[in-house]
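note to self — DONT lose this again. spent like an hour looking for the file last time. sequence + predicted structure for the chain T wanted, 312 res
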Amino acid sequence: MSATATKPVEPRSHKPVESDRAKAEQRLGQKLVLPAVIVMLAVTAFPIVRALYLSFYNYSLTSPEDREFVGLSNYVTGLTDPLLWKSIGITVLYMVVTVAIELVIGFAFAMVMHRVIFARGVIRTSILIPYGIITVVSGFAWQFAFSANNGFINGWLPFIGDDFNWFGEGTPAVIAIMVSEIWKTTPFMSLLLLAGLAQVSEDMIEAAKVDGATWTQRLTKVILPNMRAAIMVAVLFRALDAYRIFDNIFVMTNGALGTESISFLVYRQTIEQFQLGMGSALSVVLFLSVLLVAFLIVKLFRVDLARARGEG
């Protein structure tokens, strides 16, 4: 009796197969987005290319005829300057603290707007009012609120004293700017999270209740996992916006006391000091750092959008 050699069976790959519906939706989405992409490229391509071009020159508006090609010198000067890294550090601080607080408060607001039965329209409109106010106006309002002479914040916080100067030191000034930013943009975060809450199946929540799950368990095991895509979008949008913070800093401190963000540093170099070459190099650094922040957030959440739509 002769033994026959058996070939080892190779394991099949479990690569998810995209459905015809998902492919059709993807093609339709590309067609719908294409006109907007073309318009955006037409509007933004020239400024981006122009900034990249000027970043290789020593170019000042005070002496435009003395423009000189310096290669990567502006980038080397900027990246070796401690002022740039300090502004990046304070920018990251603004972004992390404000987005984290907005995420918590915004989720609470979204739960209220989602569950409320009476006067739903009035409550939603009231919560969204701060987001409709122009940032410069809200910045001036909060500057007045934190004023040591006329503001009401010191009256609300008696333990710090009536004459406490919020804009006399760096840390209190940063806190004041963060408060104004959180008050202004939390409604935007709550609006995005409300859209995510609307996608959570009530049947799943009721089934969890029947199984005896507590409110905390329903939140962590049912609601938040099914809102992962919405939370990623909300955090991504707000983080990129917070990373480019400028208006509140300009109004409340004008970049003094160590409150200068990277966007404000670009403004100083380009508008105040007329250094278009260095300002363009810093704007390119800002643009690349924004892309890096977006990449890290997407990688952090690892959301499968096809599965989130129910196609996986």
